[in-house]
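Sanity check record (used in CI):
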Amino acid sequence: MNDSVDKLVIFLAKRDGIDKLVKTFQYVSKVVHWHAESAHPDVAQRAKNWEVASGLSRKAFRTGRFLTGFNALRRSPGPTPAFRLLGVLANAGEMIYFFFDHILWLSRIGMLDAALARRMSFVSAFGESFGYIFFIIMDFIMLKEGLKAERELRRQVREKEAKDDDEDDDGAKERVAKIRADRVMRLMAVAANLADLVIAVADIEPNPFCNHAVTLGISGLVSAWSGWYRNWPS
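Expected output for Peroxisomal membrane protein 11-4:
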């Protein structure tokens, strides 16, 4: 029990931890608003107020977040030049997303012309979608490389077992365990990015499927809980 409390404290001390918690509030309240709108309009209005407040508070809390993109662009690590290019494109899209999201927030709270909100929402969502597409491609590349590395390590372990050679067997098994742990994290990242891509598409090109409250609610919760899993202290 104490260990869980300690992990929760560490999780909520992170900027991303708080963001995932408030994102959960935001999309749970969206689903509640949709469910209660016809039968309980007073509950639906309260849920809508909670959703709007959560969304605006997340934008405020992310102030300056776009600056981290400069450092990511500068580093852009990767095993090959092509992979580094994907990293540049992904981080550039995310940087555009956060920068214009700040302007969107200021227009929605009345600091800037409210007429800017729609245009800023479109540009922000476009940058977000652009970045997510390349992040997803990068994760799939790394998942493929991880599977290839795991197969090779498992082959080496089998060969050593057949020869009754225990030399460095534990080391190979430990590397396999690390590859599997990394795979889980990357799958969580893919789930979060795909869910956020659906939300971004709802802003770029509104349509009955992506803009439905249930679709947005589920997508938002998948993104929040995937991020929650990735940021939870091990």
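Helices lie at 2-13, 15-36, 41-61, 68-75, 81-108, 116-162, 169-204, 213-231. If this sentence no longer matches the regenerated tokens, the check is flagged for review.
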